[in-house]
Predict the 3D structure of the following.
Amino acid sequence: MSENNPPFPPNTPPGGGNPNNPYGQNPYGQNPYQQNPYQQNPYQQNPMGMQQNVPNSTAILVLGIVSIVMCWCYGIIGLGCGIAALIMAAKSMRAYKENPSAYTTSSYNNAKAGRICAIIGTILSGLYMIYIIVIFAFVGTAILGGGLFDNMY
Amino acid sequence: MSWIDWLEQHLLVCPNKYFFGLECPGCGMQRSVIALLKGNILESLQLYPGLFPIIFTLVMLGLHLRYQYKNGAKILQYSYIVSLSIVIGSFVVKQVHLFNP
């Protein structure tokens, strides 16, 4: 942490310059690698004290809900939002199941509600897309064949 | 009031309806919003019955993300289901005339 204890010897220029730190101050004294970034890992440190949100819980909720407004776009946006939310929800649920005490209950509830919304939205968007494809097929048949069922037999 | 008129003259055309003459589940939402902005609540409801639950859901989403209500997630989930049911119901009712002309 201090300049007295650098993590590795002071950097010597490749040309064999002055090894006694020509910059006046050791630029590597505040090396970020010296601090352990895993010190604040909730998996290791007091699970009762600092609880954090389930990852992406807000995004899951928003994406799950936004898909209703996007129903005019043949179900494509709804399907995209729903699947993205489902993937994120699967990851978050797994993280929560591994260590439930590290995460806040409210964010877990958010993720759960968002997941249900995403499931419904994905199914409905998919059904709507199938409906649109069927309509496309019928319209194409009607245009090409002159009638809906003229050439069926 | 001028911006409402501006909005009314700049509605987006539904590609579904434009190319195939078929309404999509979102058709009527823009007209409904315009009617609501003008204060015609009944007309807004007739044009798009799902608008009010959708607005409630979105406002509730914003409030819940801001203030983290205790039962906010459950409320959001149920209002989402109710909104979707109303949207799908009105869509089906609008489509019925296709199948018995």
About this structure: Chain A touches chain B at residues 58, 61-62, 64-65, 68-72, 74, 106, 109-110, 112-114, 116-117, 120-121, 124, 128, 132, 135-136, 139 (CB under 8 Å). Residues 11 and 86 of chain A are 49 Å apart (CA to CA). Chain A has three helices and no strands.
